[in-house]
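Q: Could you write out the predicted structure for this multi-component system? I'm mainly interested in how the pieces pack against one another.
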Amino acid sequence: MANSAILEMRGICKFFPGVRALENVDFTLREGEIHALMGENGAGKSTLIKVLTGVYPKDGGEVWLADQPVHIKSPQDAQNKGIATVYQEITLCPNLTVAENMYIGRTKGPFTDWGFINRSAGKLLDELGIPVSPTEQLGNCSIAIQQMVAIARAVDMDCKVLILDEPTSSLDEQEVQKLFNLMRDLKAKGVGIIFVTHFLEQVYEVCDRITVLRDGKLVGEYIIEDLPRVQLVSKMLGKDFDDMAEIKSGHESENIDLNGTPVYQAINLTGTTGIKPFDFEIHQGEVNGFTGLLGSGRSESVRAIFGADRVVGGKVFIDGKEVKIRKPLDAMKHGISYLPEDRKLDGIVGDLSVRDNIILALQVMKGFFKPFSKAQAEAFADEYIKLLNIKTASQDTPIKSLSGGNQQKVILARWLLANPQYLILDEPTRGIDVGTKVEIQKLVLKLAAEGRSITFISSEIDEMIRTCSRLVVMRDGKVVGELKGEDLNQNKIMATIAGGES
Amino acid sequence: MSVNTNVLGSNKLKRRASLTDTNLLLIITIIVFIVMYVCAVIFLKKGFTKPQMFFNILNENASLLVLSCGMTLVMITGGIDISVGQVTCLVCMACAVHLQKVNEGLAQGNVFTSVLIALGIGLAFGIVQGFLVAYLEFQPFIVTLAGLFFAKGMTTIVCSDRVPVTYDAFVKLARTEVNIPFMGSVNKKGIYIPAYVEVGVIVALVVVILLFCLLKWTKLGRNFYAVGGNNQSANMLGINVKLTKFLAHVLCGLCAGIGGYLFFLHACSGSPLHAQGAEMNAIASSIIGGTLLSGGVGNIVGTLFGVLSLSTIKNIVTSLGLEDAWWTNITVGVMLCIFLLVQSVILARKNKNKK
């Protein structure tokens, strides 16, 4: 190796009650390299990072910084030793100003020099092209800006090791490029960067080396040129990987009776959340999708269908009969289920166990005064944990200690248990790894084959093309087109979203 | 491939910072106080036209002011301390008994030692409660509730009766009036009566200024805000969250000691009935002053105006001829509700604008 190692982790172990989060993991970071840390959800990436930054104490192994064994006690300690971190969730204080968030906890002396921090923050923000004033309160900024501020803070720390834990999930294309330029600058200065992300393109764009983890164990360390994408994915999943192709062929053969009575039909459905009145119908066994840019109203449309936001006009027919859907419970009673976009906000009840989260929707429909027997609840939970392959220590584990993808599966189980005729999935694959994504897509097609109707929303167009047989395209709160069959390809969809003909 | 939109689009040109939540709430508080006082001067007249009325408010509330400042610190970190009222009571009793013993020649000491006793009691409560809250991670409400009962019990152990203080040096200090130039008024006989404040007010204002500087310009002060804003983030940002919470409680305890002594100075006696419910007044003043119970937002200047608003409204109710204590209580209750309503409406509108 030409470059010397600035960080070495040897035989790192970390146990949580019932789970081996990390088992004997080695990791080496060299001077001036960008090193991707890859793995499925629950593979132990975040845990490894949190051990390195002192958030969790390690249960075994050693950490060497620049050939010195070190013991990292706390995040402050990590900062002092030259390890700067940008976490996936924003770990800044929303009640402080932008400048304070960049400098708090790392200036010398007992006093806060406002002039100094505002000036230097302003300079740094300008250099990085972040459009925000240093004296703005952080809570008033958009999530993307907050993430950039967190990055600015880390960059300014003169660190030897910079850890970026999924920093790009809330950034747009331009901002990602800005970040990459920044990373290349730092790399040239000899900083070692650990980059965690789910986006394979990004890995191949900036990284030099990849370390793959699976189920808390090290799979291997590779130089990027030696590891083509397909192999990377198969290393992450631990199996040879042709599932993508399988999916496509699976649903082409399906024949859907489009002339029968629709399972769900809406005429002139009008919501209050800024979408224009729209018509929509879905048939038995059909998978359709809503697509459009963020903010085009695709989520708002399905929320209106489910009655999650207030509906002020229009008619709704279920199996040809007119019904009124005013609130989610009405929709549930008519066999409609909705998996919300933001699982943290709308979906999970973090402190309840996996089992309780699974039976929640069914319990609501049955009424709270007729609880399920414990045996029955356990049987339900068991069935779906197996069916969806949910990785959890037990049924009694609180859902918040599961990884993102597994939380998503629990919510999916909740709605499947309610045995819906019509299932709405809003971004079920966001923020979860490739393997689980494929599993969820397969499941969608399997459910459709069983005769259920499904609306599937995703930001990733190829995912939509693989799963849906019909796409409703939205722009600025309006339905601007419907694509199916031959038209269902990348170019046509992009053109419709952009409004090509005008 | 993924479809991305430019999330920043609308924000690109925005360089001017909008008000922080803390400053917004501070401005509301100051405006409300000024409007209230000016209305009282115009419509009620009576004493309100004389500056001395304002200084009397300060004289009577010097103790509450210091207690409220301590409370504000703890509330900014997201905690609460409901023991301060009873600690005040205990401080008064302990100092009164001590000075009377000195007076009767039963003990060594002077005014200075009584001050040390007051500070010692306050610090002791602050340190123990702070340790339990910060390092053992007990609920601050419960810990300080225990402190409240403990202090109440200790007070009656020290003495269960009212103890008036007749120790000369102390009485002299308590009676000292500091004249304020140009603010006096001429009475009916044409004699000039100077406006004055008690010594306690000077001490209280010094505490206000010191704590204001602490919160604004020291790292410790800013850490209070960070911890109250989001303690997990604060930890990730490299702040020692436990130490910060501990110090907030210690400072609040110290303020309870100082506030207790100021109460003693004003009352010149110790009694188990002193400062009953002072902690609730302190919490009310902090909230009126723009401190949020959820932490992370608050300001010492706001607290100063919170105390002034609270006592002004009490004075207004009294001068309307509604002498009964329950009228003042009802008014304060209603005022607190209106304040919370105004604050939440304004904060909600501000947050709506950003989207």
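A: Regarding packing and overall arrangement: The beta strands of chain B are 163-164, 177-186, 192-198, 269-270.
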